[in-house]
Design brief:
The chain is α+β, with helices and mostly antiparallel strands. The protein has helices at residues 53-62, 65-71, 79-93, and strands at residues 13-18, 24-29, 33-40, 45-52. It is built from 3 helices and 4 strands; from the N terminus they run E-E-E-E-H-H-H. The protein is elongated.
Length: 94
């Protein structure tokens, strides 16, 4: 299981751990991922996703999963989220 948010595409970043003597060693900054069940109003079903805490706040801010997915870019969505977006768009437009 990769350490990437399924909605925002936020992943692992690399940087330096800097000691008091200013010696630099490589380290990884991991995203704060949480397994979440989100409800889709358009599809009337629940979906389990692995989302960052920041992504979860973004979903709430935009007014739910459906609104977030419709505004999100296809590049940063996972395969599961992209399929969901297409289903929601088809349901709302068709």
């Amino acid at each position: 299981m990769s350490r990437v948010c399924e909605l925002t595409g936020k992943g692992v970043q690399v940087g330096h751990k800097v000691s008091h003597s200013n010696r630099k060693t490589k380290r990884r900054f991991l995203p704060n991922l949480v397994n979440v069940t989100l409800a889709s109003d358009a599809l009337a079903k629940s979906v389990r996703l692995r989302v960052s805490a920041n992504g979860l706040r973004s979903v709430e801010h935009r007014g739910g999963l459906d609104a977030f997915l419709l505004k999100a870019k296809d590049v940063e969505l996972s395969r599961t989220a992209l399929e969901l977006k297409r289903e929601i768009a088809k349901k709302l437009n068709g």
